[in-house]
Amino acid sequence: MRGLKSESFKLARWIGITPAALYERQRALARAGLLVPEPGRGPGSGVRATPESMGMLLVALLATDSLSETDEKTRIVANLKSATKRCPLTGKKTFVSALAAVLSSSEIATQVAWIEAERGDAIASAVIVYRQKPGDKDLSRSVFGRDRLGLIRGLTVKATLWLPFATISRDLEANPGRH
Fold first, then answer.
1. What domain count does the chain have?
2. Is 150 exposed, middle or buried (0-12, 13-18, 19+ CB in 10 A)?
3. Is 179 inside a domain boundary?
4. Contact between residue 49 and residue 7 where contact means Cβ atoms under 8 Å apart
5. 143 domain-assigned
6. Residues 1-56: pLDDT tens digits?
7. Alpha helix stretches (DSSP H) within the chain
8. What percent of the chain is helix, strand and coil (3-state, nearest 5)?
């Protein structure tokens, strides 16, 4: 079972940040209790590379640029509820559980075009943009939180991750790190 840290090297390259910066994000999530590491030091310890842990790491990247805000902002974005009660793509109720479902199935992951989150003091929302069937040109949206309805005063930031979700899913399937 590989650890999340070793899986993060490819992710860091795809995102354009250093592996050390991504690992610091992982450590902040573990300190906040959002990722649960195996006890000990060395091989066999640390956070396992699972769809759930990778999903939480992706949420943290979308939720904030600041390590000091990782705990609070990641919790908010991770727990955003589906605007349609359940995600139309995965059937899950929260953003983080929908991402874990995407990463648990390479079939579903091939449908995902990108994920995004909009965040600010007055709003938080997230979206999974996907194709109904692989190869479709038309895109559908699974919204978590709520769509922005008009202008809201203050700074809002929209973060988007375009990643090879199917590759990440296949890597996690080939490396079952679940307990």
1. 1
2. exposed
3. no
4. yes
5. yes
6. 688 888 888 899 999 999 999 999 999 999 999 999 887 676 667 899 999 999 99
7. 4-15, 19-31, 51-63, 70-78, 95-104, 106-109, 165-174
8. 40, 20, 40
Residue 46 phi/psi, 5-degree rounding, is 90, 180
Q: Range of 38's domain? A: 4-174
Residue in the block written with tokens 């199935």: 105
pLDDT tens digit string along 58-115? 999 999 999 999 999 999 999 999 999 999 999 999 999 999 999 999 999 999 999 9
- Give the β-pairing of 156-161 and 139-145: unpaired
Residue 85 token pair: 């009660």
Q: What angle do CA 140, 146, 147 make, to 5 degrees?
A: 60
Q: How far apart are the first and last CA of the chain?
A: 10
Q: Which helix (H) or strand (E) holds 127?
A: strand 124-131
- 1 HSE (CA, 13 A, CB side): 15
Q: Rounded to whole angstroms, how far apart are CA atoms 92 and 110?
A: 18
**Distance between CA atoms of 42 and 62, rounded to whole angstroms?**
29
Residue type, 4: L
Is there a domain that residue 93 lies in? yes
Assigned domain for 132 exists:
yes
